[in-house]
Amino acid sequence: MAESNRRSFLSKLGAFTGILALGGCTDLDQSEWWPNVLSSVEALTKWTQRLFAGGHALAPEYTKPEIAPEFRANGTLDPGTADYHRLASNGFHDWRLTVAGLVEHPLSLSLDDLMKLPARTQITRHDCVEGWSCIGEWTGTQLARVLAMAAPKPSARYAVFYCMDPMGDSYGTSIKEAPYYYETLDLLEATHPQTLLAYKLNGEMLPVAHGAPVRVRAERQLGYKQAKFVERIELVESYQQIEGGKGGYWEDQGYEQWGGI
Amino acid sequence: MQKENPIAKERGRFSLLRLLTFGANADPNAPHTVIFRHGLFLRLTHWLNAAILVFMLMSGLQIFNAHPALYFGAQSDFAHPALSMTGITNANGELRGITQIGRWQLDTTGLFGASNVDGTRVARGFPSWATIPGTQWLALGRRYHFFFAWFFVANGLMFALWGILSGHFRKDLIPTAHDVTALPREIADHARLKFAHDARARHYNALQKLTYFIVLFVIAPLIVATGLTMSPTLDSAFPFLPWLFGGRQTARTIHFIAAFSLLAFFVVHLVMVVLSGTLNNLRSMITGRYAIEGDDDHG
């Protein structure tokens, strides 16, 4: 009894404080303009971080003993579509990576093609936007190398990564209507030496839960920028006409296109 | 500059107004002199900082709620968090909030781990009334945090610049030899709610200097630096940051502890404001004017 009284008092006190502190905040949060005001610093944040990190500062790399015993898989753990399962069932032999858009030489690469290119292996820390971190060893092709093969046109500013995993609540029932995961990186981040099209985690071929056959590793960015199940890369001048126009699936839900913090 | 304080004219018996005005253990019959205590710049940055910190703390708790656990080291050892707040369904099918610190476990239902949002109990680290926004909304919480972070830093830098140029830090904040020897006595006096109301109140006492010094020159820089250490881009620009703080997850834990240190400071600060003369203190932080006991202005 005393306990529940106390709790009821606490929750009333809490509600009161909340109303005091936030009077009208909920309305503000639902408005169009206020979140835009809050977002107005994103460009400043990106500019400042770039000022110090430039195009070449490397994300810290770690040693083998520091690799997490189990690297947490997050986001889509299995795309679940018939197309994806067909590709997975014969080791992604029929999977092709398309590189298109504002390029001189559009590419269509098989997993073998990709693995024949010089590889980079790096032990890096994955920082999820939620707050946790995991260290893993990634092997893959530098995206800069693949983009160089495709020869970007001067007007290209962003790389868009289209993925094979459908998102949203309609998952399973009306899978065709669900938006697919996608991400964007500006070309400076896309051509950073540690930005990979990774096909191995800890020396093994990429497991489905981690984005088989190929995922992006952009090591100076948060986890949601590391698109999994990539099947197409398109170079564009602007991402405003793509899906929600904010530069990614999570960006369309309000997260920042600049995933550096 | 000094003129007589109208409240001071009301001499004689004890009154609540006098207690609220001059604080505990003030001499009710003393004459008062009004001095100019806080400059406009200090008052402005003080109140800006107070407002900014409310948003920083509450949006910070929203961000924490996205993964309500803390770790030591570079990465997250999910099985052994230093602290966690989890919602666990017990044998009766009831959602309970469990807070774990090291090996200790506490049922904190209603407050940490599980609490009510619109009448329904849900698993969440800090309760709805403590977070901005009130509902689980990491994206907007981050927007708030990074927006006000710029103002926190800008306001702090302006204050630091002013503090150096005006001599405020040198004259008012750096402890003197006398402060060091007076510290034990000052602690004892504070514990007995005996505050200086006479000419000594023209200056910060030893305990104030120590507290403000720690808040300004230790906790504030620490909370900014550990916040920046959580940015993967800045870790590439400044690899010494995660090294300095013992890894990104340790930095996150320190960030959390520093935030609650500021909250603890805020609570004690408020208690001291109330006990040592609420109205007099508030007036000095709003208009700059502050009444001290004594007829003259030589002190």
What secondary-structure arrangement, pairings included, does this model have?
The complex is a heterodimer of chains A (261) and B (299).
Chain A: H1 2-22, H2 25-30, H3 33-39, H4 42-53, H5 82-89, E1 96-101, E2 107-110, H6 111-116, E3 120-127, E4 133-142, H7 143-150, E5 158-166, E6 180-186, H8 187-190, E7 196-201, E8 204-205, E9 215-217, E10 230-236
Parallel strand pairs in A: 1-10
Antiparallel strand pairs in A: 1-2, 3-4, 4-7, 5-6, 5-10, 7-8, 7-9
Chain B: H1 6-9, H2 16-22, E1 32-36, H3 40-65, E2 69-70, E3 83-89, E4 95-101, E5 104-107, E6 113-117, E7 120-124, H4 138-165, H5 168-173, H6 177-191, H7 206-229, H8 232-237, H9 240-244, H10 248-275, H11 278-286, E8 289-293
Antiparallel strand pairs in B: 1-8, 2-3, 3-4, 4-5, 6-7
The order of strands across the largest sheet of chain B is 2-3-4-5
Assigned CATH architecture of the largest domain in chain B:
Up-down Bundle
Note the total helix count of chain B.
Answer: 11
Just give the CATH class of the largest domain in chain B: Mainly Alpha
How far apart the termini of chain B lie comes to 15 Å
Helix and strand run of chain A: HHHHHEEHEEHEEHEEEE
Q: Give the tally of structural domains of chain B.
A: 2
* Biggest sheet layout of chain A: 5 strands, mixed
Number of domains of chain A: 2
Are there runs of chain A of 5+ residues with pLDDT below 50, and where? 170-174
Label the CATH architecture of the largest domain in chain A: Alpha-Beta Complex
Q: Say what the CATH topology of the largest domain in chain A is.
A: Sulfite Oxidase, Chain A, domain 2
Biggest sheet, spatial arrangement of strands of chain A = 2-1-10-5-6
